[in-house]
Amino acid sequence: MMHRTKIVATIGPASSSRETLVQMVQQGMNVARLNFSHGSYEAHAEMVGLLRSVSEELDTPITILQDLQGPKIRVGMLPDEGIVLKVGEKLTLVPQSEDRSASDTVCIDYPYLAEEAKPGEQILLDDGLLELEIFAVDGEAVICKVVEGGTLKSRKGVNLPSLNLRLPSMTKKDQKDLEFGISQGIDWVSLSFVRQAEDIRFLKQFLVERQADIPVMAKIEKPQAIAHLDEIIAECDGLMVARGDLGVEITPEKVPFLQKEIIRKCNLKNIPVITATQMLDSMIHNPRPTRAEASDVANAIIDGTDAVMLSGESAVGKYPLKSVSMLAKIASSIEPKLQFVNNPPATTDQTHALSEALNAIDQILNLRYIACFTATGYTAQIASGERPKAMVVAFTPSIDVYHRLNLVWGVKPVYIDREGTTFEELVEIAENYLIDQQLAHSGEQILIMGGIPTQISQGTNFLKIHTLKKAS
Ligand SMILES: Nc1ncnc2c1ncn2[C@@H]1O[C@H](COP(=O)(O)OP(=O)(O)O)[C@@H](O)[C@H]1O
Ligand SMILES: C=C(OP(=O)(O)O)C(=O)O
Ligand SMILES: [K+]
Ligand SMILES: [Mg+2]
């Protein structure tokens, strides 16, 4: 792995074959995002199996991120080629239950629209690409006029920025989907359209009741989430700057500064943050990105994002592989030039104290590897928070931690089936791995960080500059 920034790719029809997945991982994909707004359980289950098998074959972790739809309104199923909306024409929106599909009628999955819609209000479709104006309400039907036309495809999103949605943050569908995700052993779960900290507490309680230890990510894409940002960050394990909906729910010109704010706050708390949507949008159709897109990716990395994400580019685009390798190239090119600010420790515990020392050593000695021993992932995450020049190689005896840590900036997770207990054993594990994998050479100095005895989590209590002795 050359790049420290992690690459998330949304999996869809363009990236579902084993061959494509293998190549995407080889090109630098670290995290597979399964968008539960789309696809059947059968298809998702098959994908989880495929990803686990590719991960084993390539001996590399792949984080599986289950993305829950949340309270998002979507249009129903339409013909494969979509329907064309022309400016000035009428389009009628009806609740799903009505099930009247005609070329001028589209179903949406929100039953209260007719009750709440007011003539003159704006409705945006497909992340704002298409625009409607409400013209009249007739019973359950909302009759609109097309203001900005284009092709509308199945299951595209519907935004009514002025509407206060009467939907719980975790819908019945989300609950069912998460039950399914738990049964599939997903590594992270993200919730769309989070509005308040309570939404995350509800999700976490749902997991606790099912004894599922899965980290939770809040997708920031509503004005209410911006208003409650600090409380939300306090409750969750990661964040996503979901710029697709955020740019519609707020306005596009406000997104760049919000992105910087959200990333900065996550960096301060040492939780991973993903910058998402339209990063290489034109690569859905073209083999090369626009200069503005290349800049956008580099700037998100300069902002301090842990990960950058592909959506349509990898799910339905013509160039899923080239999109992944372009992200990897941009990351590898910008990272050596970065100068991160040294954040104050988020908490005053031993791990943070040692990681401050780690940062000082990283600045002075040009070491290439920090071998980090971690049972929960915590130590590796704090080490990553220093944004060291050296790569954090996180040795963990937990297969779950091995997969989930792959979302975190600069961390290369390594699964160890034999848990070392003494200091000497840990050194030996690090030494064997780095030399056998031909990552480091005998005589090279590395940093080793961990806690002994190893059974106690968060008991990080040593940091050693070690000279590798093992011969290859
Ligand atoms: N699992 C899937 N099956 C089929 N199509 C998918 C899948 N995941 C994503 N897509 C397609 O890729 C597009 C872009 O992905 P994404 O940004 O995740 O979706 P959306 O914006 O609809 O939530 C989607 O609108 C959808 O058309
Ligand atoms: C990532 C996002 O969510 P989704 O693709 O599910 O709309 C977004 O809105 O940017
Ligand atoms: K640093
Ligand atoms: Mg969204």
Helix and strand arrangement:
Layout: E1 6-10, H1 18-27, E2 31-35, H2 41-58, E3 63-68, E4 73-74, E5 83-85, E6 90-95, E7 105-108, H3 113-116, E8 122-125, E9 130-138, E10 141-148, E11 150-152, E12 157-159, H4 172-184, E13 188-191, H5 197-209, E14 216-220, H6 223-227, H7 229-235, E15 238-242, H8 243-249, H9 255-269, E16 273-276, H10 291-303, E17 307-310, H11 312-315, H12 320-334, H13 350-364, E18 369-373, H14 378-385, E19 391-396, H15 399-404, E20 411-415, H16 423-436, E21 445-450, E22 462-467
Parallel strand pairs: 1-2, 1-17, 2-3, 3-13, 6-7, 13-14, 14-15, 15-16, 16-17, 18-19, 18-21, 19-20
Antiparallel strand pairs: 4-12, 5-11, 6-10, 8-9, 8-12, 9-10, 21-22
Bound molecules: adenosine-5'-diphosphate, phosphoenolpyruvate (PEP), potassium ion and magnesium ion.
Pfam families: PK, PK_C
Pathway: Carbohydrate degradation; glycolysis; pyruvate from D-glyceraldehyde 3-phosphate: step 5/5
EC number: 2.7.1.40
Label this structure with key terms.
472 residues, alpha/beta, M1 Pyruvate Kinase, Domain 3, Pyruvate Kinase, Chain: A, domain 1, 8-stranded parallel β-barrel, 7-stranded mixed β-sheet, 23% strand, elongated, binds adenosine-5'-diphosphate, binds phosphoenolpyruvate, binds potassium ion, binds magnesium ion, Pyr_Knase, kinase activity, kinase, EC 2.7.1.40
